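Readers outside the structure-tokenisation community will struggle with the description of the input data as it stands. Showing the layout once, in full, would remove most of the difficulty. For illustration, here is how one protein appears when written out as sequence plus structure tokens:
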Amino acid sequence: MQYDENLAKFLSKNPNTLYIDFLGQKILILSSLNIKNEKEKVYVFGFEEENIFKLDNVEFKPLSLNDFLNIIRTNLDEYKAENAHFESIIEHKENILLKGNLIKNFFKKSFILKQKINRNLKNLSLLNEALNLLAETSPHKKALRPLIFGVNIALKNSKEILTRLNELHLLISAIKNERINQSLYFLSVLSAIFLPLNLIVGFFGMNTNGLFLNGNKNATWYIFTLICFILIIGLVVYYKKRKKELEFDDKISKKTHK
């Protein structure tokens, strides 16, 4: 394996995981992310028949199959650890919602989390594609199969995590919309109740002669009774409508089975 200026320029422009036949040399570029400091480290491997080489500074040095597989396995474990971290975050958010609470600044935080999940998903997809291309021409195909299987599982897990986050996003949006609709409905009921009361107060508050009940000793009690009656009617109507709303897990009555 030879390292020259052409390969150096190519590697500088392609930091992502990639398997390619570059000028007759089979090259595997492996971009590894360290979770602790979030710094990317790029490994470059070369292949000649059954021999494996690793680029160290500006020289390709022989590398054993076990060492090569361990590097790939360590890289895969990092992506799995990220998936486990993302999954624990989403489970925590789901538990908060199950307790009836909302999440502060959820949409902003979920956007950042989605970007991280997509980055992990992209890296796993590139790794899966590179290993599959390598396995097609490598004599170490059997040794690569378990790694490819592990990458496929991690890739599927990343997609499931992203789906759960999207569903959580939709659920919180629906909850907030439902609360807004309930608030608007309650304000509408209050408006319907107090509108006739305002009309009554406005009517009897006019500074004119010949009003109804003018000079009656019990006029105030009559008006107060009318106002209370309107309030009670409005509250009863509101309560009956709310009572008709069933919970999702309410059991079907026996009458419906007959």
